[in-house]
Design goal:
Length: 454
Amino acid sequence: MKARHRSLRLRLLAVTLAWTLLSVALAGWVIQRMFRQHIQAQLQSELGIHLNQLTASLQVDEQGRVSLSTLPPDPRFSHPFSGLYWQISVPAEGTRFAQLLRSRSLWDAHLPDVAGDLEPGRDVALQAPGPDGKPLRMRLREVHPAEGPVDTLILAVAADEALWVEPVSRFDRMLAMALGILALGMAAAAWMLVGFGLRPLVRLRERLAALREGRSDRIEGEFPMEVRPLVEDFNLVLGRNAESLERARMQAGNLAHALKTPLAVMANAAQAEDPALPRLVAEQVEAARRQVDYHLARARAAAAVRVTGLRSPILPLLQGLVRVMDRVHAERGLRYDLEGVPGDLAFRGEAQDFQEMLGNVLDNAGKWARRQVRVTARRQDGELTIRVEDDGPGLSPERAEMVFERGRRADERTPGSGLGLGIVRDLADLYGGWARIEAGDLGGARVVITLPAA
């Protein structure tokens, strides 16, 4: 049962069939009501015509005898109990009429005495029981002859309700049959339309099967404009996954290559029984640790880029880093200025990655600064731009680009591994930003980093 509810085909068919049945039922009800009203109006109009014919042929002589110059031409008036009747009478007592003339179709019966608000020139339409108790539709008219002793005549024309009920019943049956056929046709059309409309999804499933079986590395083919964005997004995800896999392979190879040298140095020293082995082991372990930290930082940033909803306020992070830098460079008395960093700015990424990048930049600035390091930040067009500058000697454009290369340092005499600024640029690239070094206003170098803003 749950599988049916999950079927897009059945959901579309259920909605389409429900709407089709509702529309057909509503249309049938409206058409049936209109036809019924039309038949009733036609019957009343026909009774009015017969009543006018009866009035036109009415004659009253000087002795008060009532006659008709011509009988109504409808042959049903001559057939006993045909369902169409006429009668001429005069008021007797109260609401009773004294019958004078009647149609042959009444045979030995007569139309009922019906009280009504009869007025000259105004017909009255009503329902009453007729011969054999069958319901009748009647029209009555009060006539005042201009000659003769008779003051008032009551003319009545009646028709059996079966005269309009039977056509309506036949029409209802025919209408139900026609609408039933129409509903079946519309249901069949809906089935075909849903099948035709969902055919691109079947083709998409075939392409996914080819992708799963390794016969293709992306979804190919022509798809409707409603499905094409899904296919493009899926191909984009596949491309990113392929890039991530290739990047992971490259990082694994780089890490293996980076660890090979320290391991070889330690192995050679151990085989040669070098007395400086403890010192070599410590140095090579530290070099291996730096390489591992570098690649772990890249891997963590690559994973964080795909996580939504990350938000790291930068001012508290910078304040924490400055406190660390104050202890690291305590003997030099440097001043770190954060007045140019608004408190509402936030980085759309992991706080640890932000600390990794700015920690390296602040540490590097502290090594070269004479008295001051200034940090400013601003947000523009969804990007966070952070500037860190010092009042040190600065760097030439050639050396400014060189220091971003992994393992390269601006001055070999200063301590360090040469990985810091390389990590900064790599992490910024992973987040879709960039990092560069330019001349600062304080006379030294200025590192500019752009990152996504939250």
